[in-house]
Prior knowledge:
Elements: H1 5-12, E1 30-36, E2 39-46, H2 54-68, E3 74-81, E4 97-104, H3 112-125, E5 130-134, H4 142-145, E6 155-158, E7 161-164, E8 167-169, E9 172-176, H5 183-186, H6 191-203, E10 210-216, H7 223-231, E11 236-241, H8 248-259, E12 267-277, H9 294-302, E13 306-312, H10 314-322, H11 333-355
Parallel strand pairs: 2-3, 4-10, 4-11, 5-9, 5-10, 11-12, 12-13
Antiparallel strand pairs: 1-2, 6-7, 8-9
Bound molecules: adenosine-5'-triphosphate and magnesium ion.
Amino acid sequence: MxxxxxxxxxxxxYVNDPDLGKDLVTLKMIENIQIEGNSVRFLLVLTTxxxxxxxxxxxxxxxxxHHLIDKNIEVQIDFGSQVTSRRQDNGQILPNVKNIxxxxxxxxxxxxxxxxxNLAVGLAQKGAKVGLIDADIYGPSIPIMFDLQGQRPxxxxxxxxxxxxxxxxxxxxxxxIGFLADQTQAVVWRGPMVSSALRQFVTDTxxxxxxxxxxxxxxxxxxxxxxxxxxxxxxxxxxxxxPQLVSKADVVKAVGMFQIPxxxxxxxxxxxxxxxxxxxxxxxxxxxxxxxxxxKQLATLYEVPLLGQIPIVEKVRAGxxxxxxxxxxxxxxxxxxxxxxxxxxxxxIAIRNANIAPTSKVNITx
Length: 366
Ligand SMILES: Nc1ncnc2c1ncn2[C@@H]1O[C@H](COP(=O)(O)OP(=O)(O)OP(=O)(O)O)[C@@H](O)[C@H]1O
Ligand SMILES: [Mg+2]
């Protein structure tokens, strides 16, 4: 039997990317087809290294080749990824950053920083290039959560300009006001100083090539949020909530800010944190300490995906306090909850990039 490349491409043109609704050939996701006797090998280039559809797509490709060419062909698929982007700002701000993702919440203390850190480290573990900005100028968390207290970033002269070099740990490039200023100073800063600090994190920092730049925001809506959307085109926002519906009014306000027509940042989805507690000695029990499914209900209300539900686990808090994010402990069950959230998030960002127009930087006349 002699198999040809065009037969393979023809068969694969019947396989759709389930998220993007187009076939793999049209989407240019097939590369490097090699045929040797009875075996076919090719590279399937996914839209993110954290793609949850990998196995499903692999099986669909094998089936298509078996059905449309010959059922005895041995198929070998290599995976690669090319994270998609939707930027249109002429590449002036962070030209080599593909996606800028804000992590927001209505209320404080719901787990934004925990979610941001584990998302960043988890994406990096899967092979993505990731940056993380701690935009909480008054209450930075990242130095502790990365065990980087007391570290100072380097400054280098690049093309005649002084640039801050982010600190790298766990495969993530990160920057926090906690690395630059004494905390007792930053707490007395007024709005304009806070905004200018955040602008420096974006414009005066050498981020290099990134697939995802995650921004850990302070709670609620305020100057920092406005500065962010005025400084960079935010690809999308992830809203963190507990299941407690008392906090619903705050969430409505936080979501409302991203949705006002002048800002217009898409909501990638909700993540429900502290969803339930399972005592280690009773692994089949779930206690819904803060109510049940509040995040799920909000996601339904706003018609956006629920990206994940993360239980309350002592190791998550300990990981934060010790500077070892829980996703590094890949065997722990809660790391698997985070993993699902991370894959869903990467998938929804790819869908957003395929379907929604680029976000513009906001111009607000004061
Ligand atoms: N799923 C979880 N299980 C156990 N503890 C958690 C979980 N999520 C967060 N925590 C803990 O709750 C506390 C608050 O979390 P975190 O600092 O991430 O919230 P935040 O929304 O960023 O707060 P802030 O509004 O102050 O920025 C931290 O001590 C953190 O370790
Ligand atoms: Mg925080």
